[in-house]
Design a protein that fits this description.
The chain has 258 residues and is α/β, with parallel strands linked by helices. 46% of the residues lie in helices and 16% in strands. It is globular, with a radius of gyration of 19 Å. The two termini are 26 Å apart. Bound molecules: coenzyme A.
């Protein structure tokens, strides 16, 4: 698939994905969603990468929501289909086997906030502003904002921000646990790269399994404890674990196969 709404660059084995709709504050239209779908369900797995950073073009927005101009043509059925598709794509990001970091500079509203929350970590700049303002449009969040916001910041604050549509400034986002770090732009970008490189030195199966098992805790259809017990046992029998344990005992750095 040719990417037109996203820009994909691979730099030193890290994918940098830029939402490239600066004039519309990087609003997530159908094209952006289709290209995210292509990347996370297909293309990225074929690349030799350690992880990915998702960011917005320009300095005003990560993404200011779903593209509101596409809403007028929707009815109940096509609206639900749009929401279900968004859920599926964001679950693919959440469960991706490599670390995905949202680098949030400027607005991350509505679907933009939901995309950031689907990533494994969020690093914000000082100008980042989060929010679920859908009530202003007579709507509720549609790409899992009602599910992931309470998970990240607790029900009480999630309820307040979703019902009022109030925006969450970067330091408040940090205090709430919505973001991992707040840093000036260059430092934020470098921090994302540093974290992905650090994770890249760890056992790749262990990293993928940790993502899977942590996510299972929040998935009502799964028994996270049973999954952890199963994967912990199976991990002990892998070459990767043998290498990690041997390296520790031999006082050397583990050399994991990627
Ligand atoms: N969908 C489509 N277009 C959007 C958009 C969205 N979610 N958010 C911003 N844009 C467009 C604006 O319509 C405008 O386009 P124009 O130049 O053709 O008029 C352009 O991006 C710049 O936005 P503008 O509103 O002029 O910038 P601002 O600095 O005055 O305000 C925001 C910034 C983010 C506060 C404001 O754009 C906004 O409230 N956006 C919608 C946020 C939202 O409700 N998101 C949830 C959607 S479900």
């Amino acid at each position: 698939m040719e990417l037109t709404a996203l820009n994909l660059e691979v730099n030193q084995n890290i994918a940098i994905i830029t939402i490239n709709r600066e004039k519309s504050l990087n609003a997530l239209n159908t094209q952006v969603m289709d290209e995210l779908d292509f990347l996370f369900t297909d293309h990225l797995s074929s690349l030799n990468i350690k992880g990915a950073v998702i960011k917005g073009a320009g300095n005003k927005a990560f993404a200011a929501g779903a593209d509101i101009t596409e809403f007028m043509s929707l009815d109940a059925s096509s609206g639900s289909a749009l929401s279900a598709k968004g859920h599926r794509i964001f679950i693919a990001i959440e469960n991706f086997h490599l670390p995905i970091i949202a680098l949030v500079n400027g607005y991350a509203l509505g679907a933009g906030c939901e995309l950031a929350m689907a990533c494994h970590l969020r690093i914000a700049t000082e100008t980042a502003i989060f929010g679920q303002p859908e009530v202003n449009l007579g709507l509720i969040p549609g790409y899992a904002g009602t599910q992931r916001l309470p998970l990240l910041i607790g029900k009480s604050k999630a309820m307040e921000y979703t019902l009022t549509g109030d925006m969450i400034k970067s330091l408040e986002a940090l205090n709430l646990g919505l973001v991992n770090y707040v840093l000036p732009y260059d430092d934020a970008f470098n921090k994302a790269i540093e974290i992905i490189n650090k994770i890249g030195t760890k056992g790749p199966n262990a990293v993928a399994n940790a993502i899977k098992t942590i996510n299972a805790f929040y998935d009502k259809s799964q028994d996270g404890v049973a999954l952890e017990i199963d994967i912990f046992g199976k991990s002990l029998a892998t070459e990767e674990c043998k290498e990690g344990v041997s390296a520790f005992l031999e006082k050397r750095k583990a050399q994991f196969k990627r």
